[in-house]
Every structure is written in structure tokens, then in C-alpha cells.
Amino acid sequence: MPKTVLVVYAHPEPASLTRQFVRETIQIFGKQGHIVLQSDLYNMEWKAIFDESDFPCRINTDRLDFIQESGNTYATDQQSPDIATEQRKLLAADLVIFHFPLWWYGMPAILKGWIDRVYAHGFAYGYKGEGNRYRYGDGIFKGKRALLSVMVGGPEEDYAPRGINGPLDELLFPITHGTLFFPGFDVLTTHAVYGTGKIEISAAEEEFAVWRARLEHIFDEMPIPFRRQNSGDYQGGILADHICSGKSGLSIHIDNDSSM
Ligand SMILES: Cc1cc2nc3c(=O)[nH]c(=O)nc-3n(C[C@H](O)[C@H](O)[C@H](O)COP(=O)(O)O)c2cc1C
After folding, report:
1. In the chain, what are the domains?
2. Pocket flag, ligand 1, residue 140 (CB < 6 Å)
3. Which of 39, 155, 206, 234 could form an SS bridge with 8, CB 3.0 to 4.6 Å?
4. Is 166 helix (H, G, I), strand (E, B) or coil?
5. Handedness of CA 140, 225, 115, 125 (dihedral sign)
6. Is 0.85 topped by the overall pTM?
């Protein structure tokens, strides 16, 4: 059964490592007979700045309230066509892959701007007009998978558990947990390639092979076992006292004992 894969990428240079990975992705899913949708953000000249021009008919012209105006623009079908098109692609996708270089420990601004604008209120948050009822495991993207493919300039040891930069999974937690799991995606483990600034062609070929092998079975992978808000683990927005007692930090929101 063919699946639909959306590939969102943020790099203007066709010869970059990021874009070479994108080509591998498109090729492999094409070969497997899946439908591949693309969002080539630089080529699309994606408008990265979320501002008042995104709200043609304001509810309140005295003070710009992004959440209120976003919700109204989405609900009344007045969104700009670039935003509506990306939302349709997301709704069509079974799997969304984000390809980007690590820039200042996060995603390039053009991709952040894609999230800011495409994730409208009523769509990716405030789903069904129910505030925070549907989030962290529930939401519009429930049943879909997503993953990050990240090119990292620094060496792997700098991102090790005691590495000077901090572990990559923790640095990217606001994206995997906050941006993908929040609206309901099952999030797969981030695919990182380190030392990209100095990578030799032969090493790059090895990395492409590893990526291709991973994509072969991507629909069978177990997602990261983030705790679901509506699973009973939380009381309101707080993790129940008996779970990870005495601990805090990001890792308590991952259920490493689950059999997911
Ligand atoms: C604006 C900018 C910010 C960067 N920030 C980081 C960073 O935070 N950590 C890191 O390891 N490398 C960083 N780098 C290096 C990139 O990750 C590296 O150039 C990239 O992975 C190379 O892949 P590419 O060929 O797809 O561009 C940065 C590079 C640029 C241009």
C-alpha cells in the first residue's frame, strides 16, 4: 500500500550534504512506489516572518494577538494560499521528514518560520477549539510519523551525554517533543550526521548508505516513547508524583520502561 511522504527541507545549496540527503530520500521512496511531496523552502522563497500580513481580516486592529487572529483566519478560511497549501500537504502525509543543517543548535530560521506560520491555531494547537485538551500525543497529526534528519557541523563527542554542547536529543527536544509530538505526531529517533564540515566523500557515501537502510524500514520503527498527556501519567500539566519521583528535567517525559 503506497504511503505519502512529505519532505520539508531548508538548504539553498544543491551540493550541500543536506540536499544530498534529500535526494536520497526522494529517490528511495520513489523507488518503493510511495508518493513523495516536497517543500523546498528556499526555492519556494518561503516567507519566514509571521506578521500582520498573514491576517487579512483582523478581529482586533488595536493590538495584534497572534493566537486569536491565527484561529480566526484559519476558521474562516482566509489564510494565505502558501500556508493552506502546506497544511494540505501535512494532512496528506503519512510520514514527514525534515532535512536541515544544525544552525545555532536548532533549525534554520526559514524552517522555524514555516512552523510558525503553518501551525495555525485550531490546526496544530487549540485543536477542535478545546484549548490544550489535544496535545502531546493527541492532535491533528495523530497516526502520522515525523522525523528530523540533521546535519551537524561539530564532532559527535561534543554532543555525547557529557559533551560540551549537550546531547543532541536534548538540544532538539523543543522540536521533537514541543513541535512534533505536541500536535500528535509519532516521532522517530533523530537521524544525525556529525562532523559535516570536514566530511570526506567516502564517509558521506557511508552515511547515505546508513540513511537508505534506515528508510527501508521507517514505517516499522518504534517511535520515541514520549509520555502522552491523556494516558494518565499527568495530573493537569504536571507529571504524577509517583512517576520518576524526585526527578525533573526533560527526560521524565520519556517513558523508557514502556513497551511501545
Ligand atoms: C549559521 C550557522 C550556524 C551553525 N551552527 C552550528 C551549531 O550550532 N552546531 C554545529 O555543530 N554546527 C553548526 N554549524 C555548522 C553546520 O551544521 C554545517 O555547516 C552543516 O551541517 C553542513 O551541512 P550542509 O553541507 O548541508 O550545509 C553552523 C553553520 C552555520 C552556517
Report:
1. 4-223 (3.40.50.360), 225-260 (no CATH)
2. no
3. 39
4. coil
5. positive
6. yes
